[in-house]
Design a protein that fits this description.
By secondary structure, the chain is α/β, with parallel strands linked by helices. The protein contains 8 helices and 7 strands. The two termini are 19 Å apart.
C-alpha cells in the first residue's frame, strides 16, 4: 500500500528532519532511508511518521490510482491488496480518506499481514500471478508469484532484477 498506492515522500522528509536527518526525495524509499538511522532510531522514525506526521499531513495518493483501479474493475480483472501493516485500521482510514475503501478495496480483497513472509503465504493462497511492490525484499520473498514488478516511482533502483514500473499509468498499460 505505502509506496505503491500511497506516497509518503513528503512526510518521510518531514519525519526524518525531526530526527536531524536531512534526506532528498530520492532517498525516501524504505529500502534506502533506513540506512540513515540506527535500527532503534529507524523504528522511532517509522512510529513518528505513521503516528504523528501522517495524521497531521495526509500522505499523497499516487497519480492515476483511481483511474487504473476503475479500469481494472471494469475489465473484471481480480485484484488484491496485501499490505504489511502494524495498524490495519489506520490503513483503512487512509484508504477511506481517498475514497478507495470500500469502493476498490474492502474485506473481500484486502489482507493485512505482519511480516514479509506472510505476503508470500497469502499470495500463494490467493493464486496471485502478478505482484507489484516498492520493496525488492518483498518481491524476493514471493516464490510462488511468476510476474513481479518493482514500483520505482523515483527511478532509483536501476539495478533491480525485476521489471520496474514508475507510475500507475504504466500499470494501466499492462492491462
Amino acid at each position: 500500500m505505502d509506496g505503491v498506492i500511497i506516497d509518503h515522500t513528503k512526510n518521510k522528509i518531514r519525519a526524518a528532519k525531526k530526527f536531524g536527518v536531512l534526506v532528498k526525495k530520492e532517498q525516501t524509499p524504505s529500502m534506502l532511508i533506513r540506512k540513515y538511522f540506527s535500527p532503534s532510531d529507524y523504528e522511532k522514525f517509522r512510529n513518528h511518521l505513521y503516528d504523528h506526521v501522517a495524521s497531521i499531513h495526509k500522505p499523497d495518493l499516487m497519480p492515476e490510482v483511481k483511474k487504473t483501479l476503475s479500469s481494472i474493475r471494469k475489465n473484471k480483472i481480480p485484484f488484491y491488496l496485501i499490505s504489511r501493516q502494524k495498524y490495519p485500521q489506520k490503513a483503512i482510514g487512509v484508504l477511506n480518506y481517498y475514497d478507495l475503501w470500500p469502493k476498490y478495496f474492502n474485506e473481500k480483497n484486502t489482507y493485512f499481514v505482519k511480516e514479509v513472509e506472510d505476503k508470500e503465504t497469502k499470495a500463494k493462497e490467493l493464486g496471485i500471478t502478478h505482484y507489484i511492490d516498492d520493496e525488492q525484499k518483498v518481491l524476493d520473498a514471493l516464490a510462488s508469484v511468476k510476474n513481479k514488478f518493482l514500483f520505482d516511482v523515483l527511478d532509483v533502483f536501476k539495478d533491480s532484477p525485476y521489471k520496474r514500473l514508475s507510475s500507475w499509468k504504466e500499470i494501466s498499460n499492462l492491462i
